[in-house]
Design the sequence.
């Protein structure tokens, strides 16, 4: 175990120095934007490689689905675990009504909380159970004292193990979903087909879309999900090291989730600070650390809610970015038992924001108007080129949303990632309820995040104005 961990850190360190060397060499010898540098060529090649491997993963999923349909008789026990806490009533009702009970062996619903505010969710679940009286013996509904999402998930897994002790654990697959998720009727069947397509697969996730696309932001998030799942995660899935089985749509072999694994899942901490957010990413890492593969299938689909206001979106991204940095320790521990692709992907995601930050500051404060113009033109060229490739891949026009996301990344997400890195020990859930957010209800943490973003944007504006004045005065 010690040798494997040392090997993982050596592999990670070597890859980090390789990235830094490529970037530093390109930074020193070239005044051209990074697209034309050695580092830039590696990144463009990586993007094309992602598309190729994602395509290969989708072809493999399609072939697997066709084969498993013919030979899978009987299939392993399929159980759905739905966890929730004080959900929007409309979202909760839609979630329940779209559970494909007839295709499942059992449905477990666990509501986090015993207070008065938690009763409406429980009552709605009981009404839904009464409507499905033909399947009433397969539906189990529980309320537990407030344990947080991790505690509720662990309770659900342990309850399933206890209730079905007479079934071999390696013959039980547990799907996990959230209380704001709308499942496609075939989603869980496709997840199980993917999971059971290889004896080395330990967990699997599907593709998420957005059901509330009334705003431009929500449509932009839907576009981002499309790219994140069908390119980024599908590419990693081809090598069996997909880094996050999403909370709204994932599945695990029950025999992998031992009492020890669940104990580590619930009690995760960093520098003495207990972790609550990032449950889906951490559980995936715990599975991969045992040598199991994590997969993605584009044939399993579900819809989830997206923040409709920019403030809620910022807070959501802050929570996710902190989770990414917190998980680095556990992700590194997985590297020796997984494909080298996991190491490359981890280092890339870690350094990319910093590289963009350094290059932007260099351009803005060298008082070189030509360099600024080159940066803007080449950056837009990269966005256009990438989205032309994606348009052919998805067979729809993604250029507009690609440009919007580029602007969002530079002005908001980039400084937010840096802020998340320096406040990684803040373990608050951050994202508030779905009620309308008023500025005076924001926490100090959220206010500091907004201040960081505003300071970065002022810095950008100052640099641009300085270059323009130097050009014309």
Sequence:
């Amino acid at each position: 175990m010690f040798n494997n961990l040392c090997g993982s850190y050596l592999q990670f360190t070597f890859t980090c120095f390789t990235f830094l060397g490529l970037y530093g060499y390109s930074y020193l010898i070239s005044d051209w934007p990074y697209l034309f540098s050695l580092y830039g060529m590696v990144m463009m090649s990586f993007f094309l490689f992602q598309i190729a491997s994602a395509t290969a993963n989708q072809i493999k999923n399609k072939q697997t689905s066709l084969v498993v349909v013919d030979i899978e008789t009987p299939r392993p026990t399929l159980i759905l675990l739905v966890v929730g806490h004080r959900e929007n009533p409309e979202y909760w009702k839609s979630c329940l009504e779209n559970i494909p009970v007839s295709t499942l062996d059992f449905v477990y619903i666990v509501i986090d909380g015993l207070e008065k505010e938690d009763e409406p969710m429980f009552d709605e679940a009981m009404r839904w159970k009464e409507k499905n009286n033909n399947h009433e013996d397969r539906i189990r509904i529980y309320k537990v004292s407030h344990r947080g999402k991790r505690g509720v998930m662990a309770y659900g897994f342990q309850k399933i193990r206890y209730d079905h002790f007479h079934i071999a654990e390696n013959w039980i697959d547990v799907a996990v979903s959230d209380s704001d998720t709308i499942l496609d009727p075939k989603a869980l069947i496709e997840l199980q087909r993917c999971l059971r397509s290889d004896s080395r697969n330990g967990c699997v996730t599907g593709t998420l879309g957005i059901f509330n696309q009334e705003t431009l932001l929500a449509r932009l998030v839907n576009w981002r999900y499309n790219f994140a799942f069908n390119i980024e995660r599908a590419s990693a899935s081809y090598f069996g090291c997909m880094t996050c089985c999403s909370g709204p749509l994932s599945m695990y072999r029950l025999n992998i989730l031992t009492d020890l694994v669940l104990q580590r899942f619930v009690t995760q901490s960093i520098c003495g600070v207990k972790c609550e957010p990032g449950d889906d990413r951490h559980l995936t890492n715990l599975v991969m650390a045992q040598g199991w593969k994590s997969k993605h299938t584009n044939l399993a689909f579900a819809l989830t809610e997206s923040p409709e206001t920019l403030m809620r979106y910022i807070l959501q991204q802050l929570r996710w970015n902190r989770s990414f940095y917190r998980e680095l320790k556990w992700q590194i521990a997985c590297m020796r038992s997984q494909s080298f692709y996991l190491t490359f992907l981890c280092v890339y995601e870690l350094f990319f924001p910093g590289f963009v930050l350094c290059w932007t500051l260099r351009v803005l404060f060298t008082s070189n108007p030509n360099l600024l113009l080159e940066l803007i033109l080449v950056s837009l060229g990269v966005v256009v080129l990438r989205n032309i490739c994606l348009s052919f891949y998805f067979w729809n026009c993604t250029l507009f949303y690609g440009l919007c996301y580029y602007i969002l990344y530079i002005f908001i997400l980039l400084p937010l990632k840096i802020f998340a890195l320096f406040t990684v020990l803040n373990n608050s859930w951050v994202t508030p309820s779905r009620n309308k957010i008023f500025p005076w209800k924001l926490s100090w943490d959220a206010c500091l995040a907004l201040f960081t973003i505003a300071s970065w944007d002022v810095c950008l504006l100052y640099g641009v104005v300085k270059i323009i004045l130097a050009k014309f005065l």
